[in-house]
Amino acid sequence: DTGVSQDPRHKITKRGQNVTFRCDPISEHNRLYWYRQTLGQGPEFLTYFQNEAQLEKSRLLSDRFSAERPKGSFSTLEIQRTEQGDSAMYLCASSLQQGATEAFFGQGTRLTVV
Amino acid sequence: DQQVKQNSPSLSVQEGRISILNCDYTNSMFDYFLWYKKYPAEGPTFLISISSIKDKNEDGRFTVFLNKSAKHLSLHIVPSQPGDSAVYFCAASASIHNQGGKLIFGQGTELSVKP
Prior knowledge:
The structure holds two protein chains of two kinds. Chain A is built from no helices and eleven strands. Chain A has strands spanning 5-7, 10-13, 19-24, 31-37, 44-50, 53-57, 65-68, 75-79, 88-95, 104-105, 109-113. Helices cover 0% and strands 49% of the residues of chain A. Chain B is mainly β. In chain B, the strands form two sheets. In chain B, strands 2, 4, 5, 9, 10 and 11 form a six-stranded mixed sheet that branches. In chain B, strands 1-3-8-7-6 form a five-stranded antiparallel sheet, with no helix packed on it.
């Protein structure tokens, strides 16, 4: 296992189109997180899963955003009707459930909406 | 509402000297603190962490200090090396309050280590 994997690394899309990103966490990690990072800012929490259950969603996650983790393994993040303000780096992270442990991040998906 | 703040956007130090990166937080429920390092076009890489029951944690050249009364933590890198040049993020979580381990990040400090 080489760590958290995200696909694609880069995505350019036209405004109004839908996009979907995939994240494969570290295999033994049952927590999976999505974050968004814009230039000059730290990552901002979007949502997280414990196994297949989506337990928390940030107010940042508008109705156009949806995330799934159907079998408790990989996760997808879909953005519908993209807007220019959605342009950002989308980061996925995973961690163990028990206690306070560090989260390990993937390399991110850079989204550009034109 | 910025719960985790890194007030210095950038820091420049000479190779071999100490780098001190600072972080302040406002939420008293935070009980676990982490530092991440990030290179351009890559995801953050975990560096070191500290639980609120401790005031110091050391790992090689990296030491994190926590001052709970001041709600302040700092990362010391000694000696600094050119390969340490990156953006450093402070992050906090409220794990014992069943917050699911989500991290609240500061804005980052860009460290430049000059040869």
